[in-house]
Amino acid sequence: MKLYYTPKSHFARKNRILIDALSLEVELVDAGNVADSTPEIFANNPLMKVPTLVDGHQVIYESDHIAAYLVRKFDPTDSYQVLTNDVNQLNLRAVMNGVMTAEVELIMAERSGINTQHLKRFDKLRATVTQGMNWLENQADLFPQQPSYAGFHLICLWDHLLLYQMFQLKHPHLQQHIEKLSGFDCVVKSTPL
Q: Which SUPFAM superfamilies match (predicted)?
């Protein structure tokens, strides 16, 4: 199996942590510049994004679909609650994915030279991140106390926000969960530089 990723991608990192937690042998293929528009470097993902998982002739797009595929194939007991149908857990996932996507759009716009200040579209993205993080802080008790996919997701989001320093993180309840997870080998191994 091969996972097409970039070292700083928080979406791909969710998969990398799960792969390491499950002790799976997966080759990591760095796609390089995520602004590149060559489908081949993304394993021919038509969205030209990471992550993409290639397992023989099977190609899987999108981090949560990749996680579900890996768990169905290699972890029938679903040790980290990837396949949950719990609405609260799915809402946590939806908000985290939304915050992550909004942050990436802001980063990519600024990298391409767009002044994102005082433009309604980008103001809304900043509000999405702020409101999303505040919502997660208010729902922090929904994160399982034991290592879980929701927790892996949270630490990927948190570390990415720290890395790019576009937002202040004043969320003590979330930080408690981060501190619990930060020492696990499967988390440490993929910490962005």
A: Thioredoxin-like
Q: What are the tens digits of pLDDT across the range 1-10?
A: 999 999 999 9
Instruction: Look up the domain containing 67 and give its range.
Output: 2-74
Spatial neighbors of 69 by CB under 8 A, at least 6 apart, are: 53, 55, 58, 60
60 plus 127 within the same structural domain: no
**CB within 8 A of 24, min separation 6: which ones?**
1, 70, 74
How far is Cα 190 from Cα 192, in angstroms, rounded to an integer? 6
User: What are the pLDDT digits (tens) for 98-140?
Assistant: 999 999 999 999 999 999 999 999 999 999 999 999 999 999 9
pTM: 0.95
Domain shared by 95 and 170, yes or no? yes
Domain count, the chain: 2
